[in-house]
Input
Amino acid sequence: MTLPVFDTAAVQKAATSQLVLDTARAALVAHAEGRTSVPPPLHMEFPGADGDCHVKAGWITGAADFTVKIATGFYGNPQAGLASNHGLVCVVSARTGQIRAILDDRGLLTAWRTAAAGALVTHAMARPDAATLAVFGAGEQARLQATWLARLRPVGMVLVHGRSPHRAAALCEELSAHGLPARPASAHEAAAADMIITTTPATAPVLDADQVREGAHVTGIGADMPHKNELPPALFGRAQLIATDDHAQCLDHGDFGHAVRAGAVAEGDDIAAGALLKSPVDRPDNAVTVADLTGVGALDAALASAVLNELLA
Amino acid sequence: MTLPVFDTAAVQKAATSQLVLDTARAALVAHAEGRTSVPPPLHMEFPGADGDCHVKAGWITGAADFTVKIATGFYGNPQAGLASNHGLVCVVSARTGQIRAILDDRGLLTAWRTAAAGALVTHAMARPDAATLAVFGAGEQARLQATWLARLRPVGMVLVHGRSPHRAAALCEELSAHGLPARPASAHEAAAADMIITTTPATAPVLDADQVREGAHVTGIGADMPHKNELPPALFGRAQLIATDDHAQCLDHGDFGHAVRAGAVAEGDDIAAGALLKSPVDRPDNAVTVADLTGVGALDAALASAVLNELLA
Output
């Protein structure tokens, strides 16, 4: 039997937003309840080509499939007219070890599950009447976080703060063209929004904790290595509710870990983001809430398996 | 562009024995010279299905491609009429991170590079006039080690020692049918052969060091986990030349590690198998020599890349 390979267009068509949101929610809940298996990833460096390769696996315990995801980043590629990132997902039967299919999605599902997780957690933790969203960063995830959140709740205005005014303006145009009012904003103005999502590769905080208003919610999704840092420890110190998608991982290389090491909060001050998706969040109107999302491998498994079942249906 | 997938038949046709031997030899030499990159593998367990998954990556430093290999073993499969082992190899450009192709070879290249490495090292270390080969074990690797060694030098007789007399007899018939005289043998008789290759999953030595004759060579290829052990420490103690395919790996989970921990040899008593393939081995006629091969991930990379280049040529 020939191994089925599905390309990005096929994956994109099968991965409806409802499917992605439902699957991401269920997987985050499963992860919060300890029903996932995520081994330490495999990592290689290619210094001569400014490249790296990460291989991540994940499984929702007891599910029919698990996944092995290969993701490469070669940062000189754009100079040759190529995308920096490539990758694919292998969907493997957890009953027989047979490889069911390859999703040659070039990172699409990773981008979408990251967007869905950010939107779900932000929606669950923000005040019901929160209307203004600020995004820090003007890349693909900034765009996706705004558009996926707007699928869950009305977003009155998107404030975009990017290092490059040109890219921030371009993102605002794109969001507006899709019906989401958006305009560039200073860091100071963006920090005063009702909802804030940071999507940058920053290695120092991108906003000032004092500028975040009472009642606001902040979600950080950019930190994926110990030296990265988007949210200041003082923001965690102000927060009445802190959620992490994976406690150990956020301690190791998330903004939460920076806050703990700075002494702003204690190691046990967070709750599992998945738990908040299961039961409504109890948050005082004037509380500051913070979510630190570093990405959960079990979401890849759940989403790739769900998409493959759609493709084969 | 659609991701090319090559099935087992295509891979088998492209992987001529000359290509496999040349590539394995060059990769072992590169590994001995420190010109390879092999990160710690990723590992998952599926206890409910008696299954596991290993993901291994490898790169010959500076080569155009690297590989990520997924291998599963689900040991209840035969009861359902399925093979226990499945897997594939992704060949990835080390210049751009683009995935060049999938070799859906179901473990074929791993089996062949293991056979080629065993044959190359056994041929290099055995006496030129050694004629009798004993294999311990009667499975696929026992068959492959005998047939691949016979491609490098005349083999007068193969003595097969297996736990199952039935399987040993079947292997002898198969080898004889392919022009290699073979007959079942006791462990005692097999241990007295000119060349010995052990290919078992044993957890205790399969032969007695005293029964190995002066001038003999022994290659162990079965140990792939710390609790496995085929060759007795006393055999290493008798050896005048000990080769390992990867010093650290053989110390960790090879027979050499058992011998070091038993005090039979010192940690620095081995030399790199790849070094022996580059320069002729200086071995006294009556010396006992031993090779401990635990498998080098860089061979996967070199072989898959060479096979892909044949397939695309």
Remarks:
- The two ends of chain B are 18 Å apart (CA to CA).
- Chain B touches chain A through 45 residues (CB under 8 Å).
- Chain B is about 35% helix and 25% strand.
- Residues 48 and 76 of chain B are 10 Å apart (CA to CA).
